[in-house]
Amino acid sequence: NFPAEAVPQAPEDPLFGLMRAYKADQNPDKVDLGIGAYRDDNAKPWVLPVVKKADEILRNDPEANHEYLPIAGLASLTSKAAELLLGTGAPAIAEKRVASVQTISGTGAVHLGALFLARFYKVNGANRTLYLSNPTWANHHQIFTNVGIPIEQYPYFDKKTKGLDFEGMKASLANAPDRSIILLHACAHNPTGVDPTPEQWREIAELMKAKKHFPFFDTAYQGFASGDLDRDAGAIRYFVEQGFELVIAQSFAKNFGLYGERAGCFHFVAPPAPDAAEVTTRVASQLAILQRSEISNPPIYGARIASIVLNDKDLFAEWQENLRTMSGRIIAMRQALRSKLEELGTPGQWNHITDQIGMFSFTGLSEAQVQKIRSDFHIYMTKNGRISMAGLNTRNIEYVAKAIDRVVR
Ligand code: PLP
């Protein structure tokens, strides 16, 4: 038999399946709270005004062409991307302890990091275990499993408080074998919207240091979460200042609205040591080999757009303004949803809607309630009760609040 005869049918990706079902729904009141992409108050994709300007600059650049980028990507992007994460003038950058590679957005960065750790971070020839938060972005499971890294989970979400299960998380990290890899969402945790406080981050760092754990940061929402780029990088900067050796997967999909352009970076940061720069050079050389065999070199268009903005003082300031527009609208929608539910006297506590941050909120709706809100009200969300706040707007918020009220009663 042809080898493919034995290939079983794979299930459809749940999120993309949800998107398909939403598109096929003919009801005029339908609401998409599934997909993790920003929408404006008219429920339309928003091209950032600063991205339009950068696009214009790019189109009028007589030097622009369609040549290949180097294996490590566009240097004017990767250098600024590292600064964005670690801060301008960060000692790690000045001491050449950072190796940066442009990737296929955040997903490609997580994958490159996974591949790198699968190859080089072993004990007696075996891969170390990676701990994911429970829950986490579903793709994390697939990406790390694909490269043969064993996965465990640490508790994260407390169903009762709809906040962080901090004690459970700490106990799990304390019980993990020394030198495990711990995946941490830098800000705006997906899917829960629940982040540790700065004080909790300090405790996590202390615990991880004592256990010699290896931090793997995933940052897909810098600036998009709070509207403040520095604040959203706070956890990463703290860990770097604490002298951790770590890696960071960085996406520009959400904060630049460059979803389909696949712009992102992977960074390795070495701890301070006399040979740190040499170690970093060696790591960069291996990342280049991995990148070459995977994608050869990364895509150029989105990288140029982001680079133009990051390298120009005025455009950078405008970008910050655009970030505040997006995060501000989302925060306003959180407040509106919470107050409408409280006005309606909807059973339960709704403070978590405004306590959580970023694109998503874990509503606490059960799978049966999610089914009901979809069949009765044509409101689409993932079956774990996660809603994308960006799908809410001044036109549909009342409708959504009333629908939630109906299904929880
Ligand atoms: N990591 C997390 C936690 C995410 O939420 C996302 C996107 O939803 C990504 C990574 C990667 O997204 P992209 O590949 O579009 O940059």
From TrEMBL:
It catalyses: L-aspartate + 2-oxoglutarate = oxaloacetate + L-glutamate. GO terms for molecular function: L-aspartate:2-oxoglutarate aminotransferase activity; pyridoxal phosphate binding. Its cofactor is pyridoxal 5'-phosphate. It comes from the Eukaryota. GO terms for biological process: aspartate biosynthetic process. Keywords: Aminotransferase, Pyridoxal phosphate, Transferase. GO terms for cellular component: cytosol. CDD domains: AAT_like. PANTHER family: ASPARTATE AMINOTRANSFERASE, GLUTAMATE OXALOACETATE TRANSAMINASE 1, ISOFORM B. This is Aspartate aminotransferase.
